[in-house]
Amino acid sequence: MKHKNIFDNPDDDDNDSIAVPELLLKEEFYRTFIMVAGKIPLWAVQPSGLEPEQLSIWKKKALEYGGFIDLGTFDTMPVEEIQRGLLWQICKAPYDPVKSVIKASMTASYQRSEKSKTSLPVLLCDKVKQRFGQSIIDDYAADPYIIAFERILEFYTEIGDPRALSQVKAAIFFRLCGFPLVALPAKDSPKRKILDRYVRQWQLSSTRLKKLLEYQIWPESEKTLFDHTMIERLSVLYKRSLDQDSDNSYPIPVSSKKEMDLKILKNKVNKIIHKKKGVLPHCSTYLGLKPHSQMTIIAKKKDENIKSFEWLLFSQVQNSPSLSNLAQSGQEQKGAKDKNYSLLYSTEYFLKTVGWSMSNHLYIRGTTNLKTRSPFKLYKSMNKEADCDDIYLALQPWMPLSDEPFLSEPFWEKIVVLLFTANDTTVSSNTGDSATVSSNTGDSGTELTHKSIEQSDTDKLHKPEHAEFLVRNSWGEIFFEVMNLEQIDNLEKRCYHTAMKILEYHEKQSHYTIFQMASKPIPKLIQRIKTIVEDTKVLKKNSDMNNIRRRPYLDTI
């Protein structure tokens, strides 16, 4: 905290992380009446209404007395700070959308309204200080919670949007009840008194009250919808602030560091608000905060066709019977309703199910044990068996290690490919070619070439039915795509099309890893795809070099 409200540090060379909205943080600091190094901020005891000369004399004597520290003061909140604060809260929303909506609403209330072109809103810290000066002992109406909530409710009433007012009332209710682990505050506690007051004041029906209190047993779809609604409310607040500031013709110069911060904030907000096609969906805040020490993915046959599967992700709360037995007996739903199990997610693709658990940070390496129950095994290169943790490592880091990537447009960094084969046919090729292709492991002497693939194809060698792709970009967005290969008869062509899809994502700074899921792997299949990828990259590079050489000498310079 600085006396003149100048927070830029010219000696700070660390540009990897964005700075918090400083004035908003200072206002919140004053509002909480925190001491600094055992000293009381002078603002907390400074009388109002003094002339500048009187105030200067008062400050001098107060500091001579000791026990106080002068951190300066401010009367208004600049529009630029308000908008940065709103962007900041959107970035924080995925972790606690209720808290973000309340804080963002307070921030938005500092902007001059269209109805009041002359007067500026009083800062909340000054309002709290004034209320404390007028209150009596144990006056819970002077509680900063009450003052903040009153400010928010007045703000939304002034806007004249009933839907927005209803949403913020739900946010206030949940905030008092400890969102996301929603429960009534202790009886006779300050929070309970405030909550009881609002229940009466808002005339909440018993049905509505029961619905809010039963948040923890809402379906996951309802929880995610609520989170999305809160984030949408934040987006509306930011757009409203921009619209109100459209007539501002007095731009204030800012430092290059703040310009970088603003660019990073806007790109982070774009990642949260603008969902791109193929991005893995987010789970609810509630589900993300629950501990998941043991998770299991089980394969369930969708019908008699062995190639058609559904992958179900379970979270095990306590020691319980084997989930594989539940899958085989068709009792998944019964198991999901059991107190020991929770069905978190299900799709028809293994890699999408795994990726969803990891992108939502339900799987925490070293803490969560993620197992797979299926008739198939996961393999890496050279037919080496793998597990879900290998997929996690192939895509890490799942989140950017700093804010620097948000200074530019995202690019593809990590690509994970899964070749899924459900056919168990085992074939040995005796066509006279020196290369023998077998589906047994340990066949280290074989080499899968274009010729051997074509010959094996005539022997009905089992081929991958589809290829699944998880792709992470530099912003930490995880995309899923699947490519159906069953329409392609030739195994070599399946390898080629898979390789071409990898190259669609592959860039200079990207890295790809290929896995295979089957009961028995195809020897060297992964190596064949990698060979096509690398050969194509070399051909493209040579072609680019030839194009450069053909240019006129001066054009090349």
Structure summary:
With 557 residues, the protein is α/β, with parallel strands linked by helices. It has helices at 22-31, 52-65, 79-92, 97-108, 124-134, 144-159, 162-176, 190-202, 206-213, 220-244, 256-273, 285-289, 323-328, 332-337, 350-359, 388-395, 450-458, 491-505, 525-550, 553-556, and strands at 40-41, 68-69, 294-301, 309-316, 341-347, 369-373, 377-379, 412-420, 466-473, 478-484, 511-518.
Question: Please, could you describe this protein's structure?
Answer:
With 557 residues, the chain is of the alpha/beta class. 44% of the residues lie in helices and 12% in strands. It has 20 helices and 11 strands. A 5-stranded mixed sheet has the order 7-11-8-9-10, with helices on both faces. Strands 5-4-3-6 form a 4-stranded mixed sheet. Strand 1, helix 2 and strand 2 form a beta-alpha-beta unit. Helix 3 packs antiparallel against helix 10 and helix 4 crosses helix 7. 31% of the residues are buried. The C terminus is likely disordered.
Task: Itemize the secondary structure elements and their pairings.
Layout: H1 22-31, E1 40-41, H2 52-65, E2 68-69, H3 79-92, H4 97-108, H5 124-134, H6 144-159, H7 162-176, H8 190-202, H9 206-213, H10 220-244, H11 256-273, H12 285-289, E3 294-301, E4 309-316, H13 323-328, H14 332-337, E5 341-347, H15 350-359, E6 369-373, E7 377-379, H16 388-395, E8 412-420, H17 450-458, E9 466-473, E10 478-484, H18 491-505, E11 511-518, H19 525-550, H20 553-556
Parallel strand pairs: 1-2, 3-6, 8-11
Antiparallel strand pairs: 3-4, 4-5, 7-11, 8-9, 9-10
Helix pairs in contact: 1-5, 3-4, 3-10, 3-11, 4-6, 4-7, 4-10, 5-6, 6-7, 18-19
